[in-house]
Amino acid sequence: KNDAEPPMDPAKLEKYNNRRMKIAVEILVTERSYVDSLNTMVNKYMNPMFGLSLARRPVIKNAQVTEIFANVEEIINYHTMLLEGLERRVAKFAPTTCLGEFFVSMTDYLRCY
Asked: Which tens digit of pLDDT belongs to each residue from 36-70?
């Protein structure tokens, strides 16, 4: 018994592979934008707020800033690793590339959520 599917029409296969590539690129672009936004949040908000918490008359307490930005460094590290892995896979994208396996391999890092 042969359970293999019949070969796909070459034109349909090319369209399918092009669509997969576009989706992979969109995931990569979205992840890159998210990592950039996280870094902007740290540089424009978190770090200045920590600075304000150390002032002679602080407008916010250090513990409050820590609570507001809880796990942000862990989240940035996770998403930076995710981004780097996506960049490697998308750069060498082929019809056999499977991003799903990569996401599954990263699940251990999702504890910070």
From this structure: 999 999 999 999 999 999 999 999 999 999 999 99
Q: Where are the alpha helices (DSSP H) in the chain?
A: 10-41, 47-53, 62-68, 72-91, 99-105
User: Which residues contact residue 73 at a Cβ distance below 8 angstroms, ignoring those fewer than 6 apart?
Assistant: 42
**CA distances (Å), 37 to each of 2, 13, 24, 34, 73, in order?**
50, 36, 20, 5, 13
Distance of alpha carbon 80 from alpha carbon 76, whole angstroms: 6
End-to-end CA distance of the chain: 46
Task: Give this prediction's pTM.
Answer: 0.84
Residue 62 and residue 53 in contact, taking contact as beta carbons nearer than 8 Å? yes
Burial code (b: 16+ CB inside 10 Å, e: under 16) for 70-84 equals eebeebbebbeebbe
Write down the residue that tokens 């576009």 correspond to.
Answer: 22
